[in-house]
Q: What sequence folds into this?
């Protein structure tokens, strides 16, 4: 019987919830004293953590929790910069995962292909709809996804989704059930928790 690997836990400096460190956002202070997001948990130096939650990050800044946790009273913490940095890093992760899913043959893209896939949804995990999809096509996809009981997430624009796929503009894509799709869905939920909406 193999021994289960110990996964280190950390505590959110705002709400004091303990969790696997991979489930929390890590921050470090740069040599100039600016607090930055360390999304990949790779930057050197003393780290501190919050939940993937806009309110937790905001409270941590308001209560000067970063300065106490990093043991540096001079740290420069700007809530807008922190949220923007976290948003950009999660967004990059999401778009990279979409590209990986395409290369692995796990993505159906384009309204016709997605609508066809939704008629036999057994292998589908969820559907991503662009924010600027035309109303008629969007309504068709929403209705078909609802009938098939497939979760639907609306985020990004057609150009962004298309770029992630290495293709022209794409207004809709469907992810086949897979561990990669689960990871992507997890990152999308993180994005929503930080930004409040997609």
A:
């Amino acid at each position: 019987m193999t021994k289960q690997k110990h996964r280190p836990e950390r505590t959110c400096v705002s709400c004091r919830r303990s969790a696997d460190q991979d489930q929390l956002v890590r921050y470090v202070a740069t040599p100039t004293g600016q607090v930055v997001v360390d999304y990949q948990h790779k930057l050197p130096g003393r780290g501190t953590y919050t939940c993937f939650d806009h309110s937790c990050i905001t409270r941590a800044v308001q209560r000067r929790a970063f300065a106490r946790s990093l043991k540096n009273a001079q740290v420069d913490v700007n809530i807008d910069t922190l949220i923007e940095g976290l948003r950009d890093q999660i967004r990059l992760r999401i778009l990279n995962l979409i590209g990986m899913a395409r290369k692995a043959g796990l993505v159906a893209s384009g309204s016709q292909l997605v609508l066809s896939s939704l008629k036999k949804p057994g292998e589908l995990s969820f559907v991503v709809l662009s924010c600027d999809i035309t109303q008629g096509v969007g309504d068709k996809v929403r209705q078909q996804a609802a009938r098939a009981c497939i979760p639907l997430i609306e985020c990004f624009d057609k150009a962004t989704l298309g770029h992630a796929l290495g293709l022209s503009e794409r207004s809709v894509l469907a992810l086949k059930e897979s561990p990669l799709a689960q990871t992507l869905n997890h990152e999308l939920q993180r994005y929503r928790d930080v930004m409040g909406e997609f």
In short: Strands lie at 9-11, 18-20, 25-29, 35-37, 47-50, 107-109, 124-129, 152-154, 172-176. Residues 79-103 form the longest helix (25 residues). The longest strand covers residues 124-129.
